[in-house]
Design a protein that fits this description.
Pfam families: Ppx-GppA. It is a single chain. The protein is an alpha/beta fold. It has two domains: 105 residues, Nucleotidyltransferase, domain 5; 184 residues, Exopolyphosphatase. Domain 2 (Nucleotidyltransferase, domain 5, 2-Layer Sandwich). 46% of the residues lie in helices and 22% in strands. The strands form two sheets. It has a six-stranded mixed beta sheet, with helices on both faces. Strands 3-2-1-4-5 form a five-stranded mixed beta sheet, with helices on both faces. Strand 1 and strand 2 form a beta hairpin. Helix 6 packs antiparallel against helix 7, helix 6 packs across helix 12 and helix 8 packs across helix 12. The N and C termini lie close together (9 Å).
């Protein structure tokens, strides 16, 4: 039996929608949408979701509710991740989602977030397992090792929004700011890798906007093309080059990059630094970029 499902992933930086048909074996996209809402803005500092951030998210969800009604999805699941997991006023966010979408958001654990990411990414991969899947989000990064199933997973509090707010205050970031971010990122990445055993001998797969943006820049695309980015293999040298170029540029210069989403220009330096550090600490020669991620994992869970 085929079901029309609607999956929503609400992270620290963006809220995304996938409406798809699935028979349990295949997933056929009907609509994919992304809005940068920065739900986690200031959470690392205040411990609370701001009223403005909740309102930005509500506006996006009103749009999504209309799309879901138009296409007639019969199963809906919304997973809310790092920002709403950390916030003291998460109940306000939950009430808003329930009123807007008619479903309760699931504030998933870090482990469940990691497993959903792996499920979304691993289907369709032809590279040699085992895989180390890293999902670099706004507030957290998930590290998952597995072949066909998850063998080890951890979610850690290092993400492009969190590291930007914590360390990168100048434009462009100063050398001491970058050095402080690097110390923070490296320590956390090493702890995550020790937990999952994801060192040498695994195929590195990178998910989410920081990875796909770095990939698109490294490919020299004139505009974002998901078909070119999906499963592209990016050498470490290219990641290091793009990371350095982004760090040296100011906000306007980053914004002028053809593939840059306007809502990502202020946090991409930290995102690229996280990716580069993961590659260095694992000794990975390259990373496979994947457009299939936690959003696809949520959709598969509804099959």
């Amino acid at each position: 039996m085929t079901h029309r499902v609607a999956a929503i992933d609400c992270g620290t930086n963006s809220v995304r929608l996938l409406i798809a048909d699935t028979d349990g074996e295949t997933l056929t996209d009907l609509r994919r949408e992304m809005r940068i809402v920065r739900l986690g803005e200031g959470v690392d500092r205040t411990g609370r979701l701001s009223e403005a951030a909740i309102e930005r998210t509500r506006v996006a969800l009103v749009e999504y509710a209309a799309m879901i009604a138009e296409l007639g999805a019969d199963r809906i699941r919304m997973c809310a991740t790092s920002a709403s997991r950390d916030a003291a006023n998460a109940a306000d966010f939950t009430a808003m989602v329930r009123d807007t979408l008619g479903v309760e958001p699931e504030v998933v654990t870090g482990d469940e977030e990691a497993r959903l990411s792996f499920t979304g990414a691993a289907r369709g991969l032809t590279a040699e397992p085992p895989y180390l899947v890293v999902d670099i989000g706004g507030g957290s990064t998930e590290f998952v090792v597995g072949s066909t199933d998850v063998e080890a997973a951890i979610s850690v509090d290092v993400g492009c929004v969190r590291m930007t707010e914590r360390h990168l205050h100048s434009d462009p970031a100063s050398t001491p700011e970058l050095a402080a971010a690097l110390v923070d990122i490296t320590g956390t990445v090493d702890r995550a890798l020790a937990h999952v055993g994801g060192g040498r001998g695994v195929t590195l797969v990178g998910l989410a906007g920081s990875v796909t943006t770095v990939t698109a820049i490294s490919l020299g695309l004139d505009g974002y093309d998901s078909s070119r980015v999906h499963h592209a293999v990016v050498p470490y040298a290219d990641v290091a080059r793009v990371s350095a170029e982004l760090a040296a540029a100011d906000h306007e210069e980053r914004l002028a990059i053809p593939v840059m989403h306007p809502g990502r220009a202020d946090v991409i330096v930290a995102g690229a630094l996280i990716l580069r550090t993961i590659m260095e600490r694992t000794g990975a020669d390259s990373v496979i970029a994947s457009e299939s991620d936690i959003l696809d994992g949520i959709a598969w869970s509804l099959a």
